[in-house]
Amino acid sequence: MKHWIEAARLRTLPLSVSGIIVGSIYALSNPTETINTPTEVFSWKVFGFALLTTLGLQVLSNFANDYGDGVKGTDNADRVGPQRAIQSGVITPQAMKKAIIITSLLTLLSAIILIYFAFGKDNFGYSIFFLLLGIMAILSAIKYTVGNSAYGYRGFGDVFVFVFFGLVSTLGVNFLYAKEVDPLLILPAISIGLLSVGVLNLNNMRDQESDKKAGKNTIVVQIGAANAKIYHYTLIITAMLLVVVFAILSDYNFDQYLFLLAYIPLTKHLITVYKNQDPKLLDPELKKLALSTFLLSILLTVCMISLISDIIVNLFLGGR
């Protein structure tokens, strides 16, 4: 069990649910034209299964990454980070393959239940669309490193992370509640996507030499270490700016800028990356950036909750 928990890479899980948290609380704090109260918007069943589905997708991605890089020999003695399960021999490729199949089925089942709770017997078109989206996410998580046409080996991993753990996670879960897309929410969705890509980019910066030898042509391998740093600064700084723009356009009060506290560890992280001369020392920064992103999502939702409290007070006063 210990080895399977390690293979699931628990440190990546808080990052994966950041978009779910922001999208859900935003739906609760912004009733639509047809849904006027928080109780009509929010559903614990939708929230719970959205979290479960996203966590399943992240664990699946981690298992598939372990398997794909393991059988290809990408995870070898040259790799900098902690040893992977197949690389170290504690889990066989056959066992990991079975785990990938089981995790895929459980994630799909969770997605189906989520879709049912969100749309019920109505909105058949939406149900089919989200089912196809879920299947696509599962296949994309597997094909990142598995197979001869693994897109992670051609530099497209960043696109997968941005789309599914940024846009789909945030905007998708919000749509499950509101049944519409709020253009303003696109800003934090992009931010979370960019920060998630930043974590992957750090991983690729750390593994640049071993990836290059193994033929894994990540964006870092393609553009080089110096440009990878510039790319990283662009990802993080753009994400930080977009959240500020989101707050301004949302007419946040002064006390609703609490989320800026998350910019402290993000800024420290940027300074560390700027000063870094040894990619091996970037490994601790993966966890720091992932947790900083999670912290930003939590603080941002706390700022939204101040809006929710006003809605709930009015709701109860109106009921009396």
General description of the model:
- The chain is an all-alpha fold.
- 74% of the residues lie in helices and 0% in strands.
- The chain has 15 helices and no strands.
- It has helices spanning 2-8, 13-16, 18-29, 38-41, 44-72, 85-88, 93-119, 124-143, 157-178, 186-206, 208-214, 219-223, 225-249, 263-275, 283-319.
- Residues 33-39 have low confidence and may be disordered.
- Conversion of 1,4-dihydroxy-2-naphthoate (DHNA) to demethylmenaquinone (DMK).
Give me some keywords for this one.
transferase, about 325 residues, 1,4-dihydroxy-2-naphthoate octaprenyltransferase, UbiA_prenyltransferase, membrane, transmembrane helix, single chain
Cα-atom radius of gyration: 20 Å
Question: What is the overall pLDDT average?
Answer: 87
Count of helical segments?
15
- How many beta strands in the DSSP annotation? 0
Q: Could you describe the largest sheet, including whether it forms a barrel? A: none
Low-confidence stretches: 33-39
Estimated share of beta-strand residues: under 5%
Shape: globular
Distance between the termini: 53 Å
User: Helix/strand/pairing class, anyone?
Assistant: mainly alpha
Percent helix: over 70%
Q: In sequence order, what are the helices and strands, one letter per element?
A: HHHHHHHHHHHHHHH
